[in-house]
Structure formats: structure tokens, C-alpha cells
Fold these 3 entries.
Entry 1:
Amino acid sequence: MAKILIVEDDRAINGLMARTLSINGHQCLTAYNGSEAISLMESQAIDLILLDINLPDTDGFHIMEHFNGAPVIYVTARSDIRDRVRGLDNGAEDYIVKPFHIRELISRVNVVLRRYKREDIFCLGEVKVDFTNCKAYRNDRDISLTKREFELLKTLILNKNITLTREQLLNAAWGWEYEGEERTVDIHIQRLRKKLHWKNYIKTIYKTGYRLEITP
């Protein structure tokens, strides 16, 4: 999981990026101007920043002066080569020109995050999940999970206490182009419950989907 700050004044584009990245297992923070962005950068531990240049109160180049160490990808309509060079010279990891395909954005985000990869461990009861190595253990014994099972598990963990629809889980584990039935999610959830002994944690939400429910 990565905590991603999206700095974009167009609310439709901001929302689309946030929804898509959330479905792919990330936590998204949103800002619609430079002041909001700087405030979040100074108060949050952010893993990646998606930054527009043309903002109502400033520009993305100025925000880079408040850089908090997180990698930056410019997402902007400014396609002039001078802007591209300036952005990259200022320390950005990448530069995406609008309009862009959402799948391209996801791929570029994943590339940058892999460069800044960090170890993440999640523990619940007798189970430990290692995001870095895509492994899960119960009482320190390896749990044999398929790739799809692990992707479902990761999505549930990263969205704990949030109800996810079958469609969201399907997109997260199988991808947008998968044409199979949502019933596939039910089968894999049943297997996860059995393998992890999480019958009391993975809740079925009637006519909607599933939620990993953890009481504080």
C-alpha cells in the first residue's frame, strides 16, 4: 500500500485518479490547490505525489520547493518541452501529459513506487502478511496462496473496515479487462477464510460484497 497525494484542481480528474488508485490498493489524499497540498505534505507521511502544474493559487513548480522527500509525478496539460525539462530537472520522477489513459497512469505509478519500495508487514491474530514478498504466514508457517488470493487479501487489508463490492475486488485482483463472473470473487473469498482461519474477520455484506472487519 502507498499513501498517494493527488494535487489536481479538476475535481472530476482528481476523483477518477483517486478511485482508480484506491481500487488498486492505495490510500489517496486529495488537494485542489497549492495551499491544501502544502498543508498535507507537511502533516502526512506521503509515499507519492501526483502533481498538476496549473493550480488556482500557485503552480506545481513552486510546490516542489516544499518537497518532503516523496517522489513526484507531474500530471499536467502543459506539454511544452521546456516544461517537461523543468519538471524533471526539479526532481520529478516522471511527467504525464493530459489527456492520458488511466491504465498508463497506474503503470507509471507502479514503476515509481517500485523504485521506492519499502517493507510492509500486517499482522492480525495468528496471521502475518508480508506485502513486500507477497507471502502470508499463520503461526509462522507459510500459507499457500495463489496470486489472485493474495491480491484479494491485500485489497481487503488495505481497505480494512471498508465495504468493497464484488466488482471492486474483481478489478483489484484480476484487472479491468477481466471478463469473468463476479461469482469468482465469492469462491476465492471462501478459500481465503479457510486458509487464514478468518471466518470471523472477513464479513459478507448482503447483496454488496465483503469487508475485512477489525475492531479497534
Entry 2:
Amino acid sequence: MLLVNPQLRGFQNLMISLCEIERAASMLKGRIIRTPVVYSPTFSKITGFEVYLKLENLQITGSFKIRGATFKILGELDRIGKEGVVAASAGNHAQGVALAAGRAGLAATIVMPVWASISKQEATRAYGGKVILEGQNLGDALEKALELAKEGRAFIHPFDDPAIIAGQATIGLEIMEDLPDADLIVVPVGGGGLIAGIGVAAHSVRPDVRIVGVQAQNCPSALEALQSGQRTRVEAAPSIADGISVKQIGSLPFEIIRKEVDRIVLVGEDRIAEAVIMLLERKKVLAEGAGAVGAAALLGEKIEARAGAKVVLVVSGGNIDISLLDRVIRKGLSWNGRIMRFSILLDDEPGALAGLLIVIAHAGANVLQIYHNRGGADMPVRQSRVELEIETRNFAHIREIAMALGNAGHVIGPSGRGLRPVGP
């Protein structure tokens, strides 16, 4: 845990002042949505805390990024030339810059990696951005954006910029206005601009409020930096929380985080998927992986606070691709026992499949998918393999179904089509 002297917090932070954050809030008024802070009975009951959600997924463009981009562009409008602005991003920052620039009457060029999702490319174009696809990673896209900046375009950094951080910091002011006695604010961490800004703003109002950052376990750049005392570039594995998969934290955010943030915790992919499902199912909140990591940290018991503490989760965005959402839902349902996948060998004779389905129905499960394979080289001539995916209530229900199938003489095995065998 990183311990911080409260006297070094908030308005005494010389890099981002409360005055600048308040100026950002004034400039953004009427230009963005003042997103709500809502109480969550579900997460409160599970954790024993009083849990609230700051819903930046409801923000214009579906993410908090419009705040910093708007403040940066409007604040420097007199210094931006006719070539407009340029940014590098695979998603939320791209859309925020494109919209903010378009509203200011400026051209916006957005460099995206070639693998950027089509939906995010099209959304960026819809907000008025000119999209250039360049490189296999964000580093390549960034190099191209910096080249274009030399031609007269103003470069808009996604997190390592005082104006960007001040814009994102307005979230912290709103949280403290809506919930002035908040004990703990949980914030997703990628490049660090969001949590740096929220930390300064929140501590300017209430120095003893705790700020906890959450990163995907597959890309722990902020945690590694805090532990080593210097910015560290990490190797990142693919993550559902791609919006915070930043391999090296920004230099300015790093200096602020060292003073303003109490702790950084990590969450795994299964927890993130579970959190996306729970937010969607229980609260009707659609969060992208990066936006759900705070909820994942709560579910994984990574957040330490007294019973009844007021905890605010920043749901930073909701821009998740439909195809990814489908995979996340299936992964999340499987992880928490809501889906059972298995195969069974049946005698290839009339009524055998019907008998199997009767056992499943009597056990209270619903068949989602079924595949009847008669042609496997490893199967006896008079048998076929039935691969099933069924909807279940929990792991206890899965065990009941397995017992019922066993009592009926069926031997459960793994599926040949990538379906997971029974059990957690």
C-alpha cells in the first residue's frame, strides 16, 4: 500500500490546482453531461459497504474522455491553427477529441492502430474525425500522430497533459458535491490521467477521502511504477479492459498519483467479466471492461474499508463492441456457474436424445445450444456424441444436474467444440 501524507494533498498539489479544475468545470458546464451518482443495493449487500456508481458510461461519446478533450481544445483555441488537432487512440480518446474539435469548428485527425474495431472507427468518423489507420500498436499510431503534429496540427495527449487531467478532475468535484461524506473513491487506471485528476479534486474538498486505483492484472503499469519508484514499461497481455491497457503510465500522472492515491490493486479477467455481467444484469448499466474494473475489485474483495463505508465506483465508460460483449457475457456466465458446458456419448437409437433432454428439463435447466455429432473418429459405430450448453442458476445447480445425469446412467465428458466441462 502507498501511504500518503494528507498535508501534501489536494490544493497544495502544484501540478494541477483546484482553481484550474474549477475553471474546467465552469467551461464544461452545458457542454457535457453531469453524470449521476447512483446507489447500488446489489453491490452494497454483497460487500457490506454503501456502494455508489458514478456513471460516466452515460457521458457524451460514452466515456469520460470528452471532459479533458473539450477543456484542452477550448482552453487553447487561440493557439490552434487551421490544420486543427491530431490524436492517437484506439477508442474513447479518439471519439472525445473528434467531437470536441468538431464542436469548436476544428478539423480532427485521429490515428488508430490497424486493429482498432470497426465500430470505434465509424463512431470516430461520425463525430467528425478523419481516421488514419497506422501500425500494429498504439506506439506506432502515436509516432504517426506526432509526425502529423509537425505539420501544424495541435497534438492532444490522452492523459499526460495538465489540461486533460484538469478536465477529467471535474468528475472528482461532482462526486464530492453529490456525496460530500464519501469515504473511498475507486477509479480505473490506464495512463493515469483520470485517477490523478480525481485524486486532486477530491482531496481539495476532503483531504481524508481515500483514492484507490484498479488495473487489469494483464497490464499492471501503474502498480509496477509505484512499487519501483519510477515509471516502468510493462509487457501487457490481451485484456477485456483494453481501454486501460497502457504499458507505461504518464509522467505527470505518476507524480500526482504518488501523492494522491492510497493504493493500486489488480483484477483478473474472470472478475472483470463477472463485473460486466453483474452491472448489466442487476443495475442495467452497460460498462466496458475498463469501466467495470472497480466493481471487479469489490467482487474480488480487493477493496478494504470499514463496514458501512461510503464507496464510489467510477464507471468510466460503456463503449464495448457488441461482439466482445457477447464473448464477455458468455465468459462471465460460465465463470459464475450460470452456464454448464459438457458432452455425453449416447446410443444412436430413437429416443436416446429425448431421454437425455428430459433429465435436463426435470433438473430445471434450459438448453441454450446442442450439437449432435455422429461422425467422430474416436466414437463407437453405434454411438454419437451430444455436446450441450445449458443455462443454470449457480454451481450448486450444476452439481445437482451432474448428479441427475449420473443417476440416469450418463457419463459426462468435455466437449470437442471448445465447451468447458462441468464445474467451477
Entry 3:
Amino acid sequence: MKKNLLVIDDDIDGSTLIKNHYSKKAYKVDTAPTLEEGIAKINEQVPDILFLDHHLPDGLGWAMAAKMQRTFPKMRIVLLTAFDAPPYPVANNDSDFTRLEKPFSLEKLDSIFDE
């Protein structure tokens, strides 16, 4: 079965890299530049994997990660940041989330599926 991915990130280059890379691997990939648009897309169709940026124009994506995980427990969340990962935990069980620091390589993207 084809997996659905959603990238919520205002970094167009990073979103495009993820979209192009996984589209070639037969994944269905959608993007959203804001939390509001991303949440609307999640409510339309819950992705199998969500790439969620931290600093977004309308808020901090990571602040929503724990709530999203509780609401959609089967959705895997990969946290993205262009800065050093914040030292605070995202949720009580922070190990539920994979953190990916930008810039990332295609090999690093692929390695998250091996975890």
C-alpha cells in the first residue's frame, strides 16, 4: 500500500526536496507552509508520516506534536529544525519523535525509515 506523507514546513526548498525524493519512491507527498494549512490537510486525510517544522509563520510546530500524536496515534511524526534542536522535550515521551536537523541529506532522510 502506498504511504502518504505530509510536510509542514515554510522552507520551500526543504519541502520540495522531501516531496521530490519520496514521490520518486512512489509515496504520495503533500506539503503545507503553515500550521493552519497543515492541520487542515491532516483533518482531510491523516498521513502515515508527518514531517513537522519547528519555526513556522503561524506558530511553533513542535508545540503541536504531542497533541497531534494523541489525536492521530498511528501517524509517525518527524520533527524538523534548521536550528539546533530545542533542549526541551516535545512531550512526556519525547522518544516517540524522530528529530531531523536541516540541512539533511537524502541518505539521512532514508535512514529515518530504518528506525
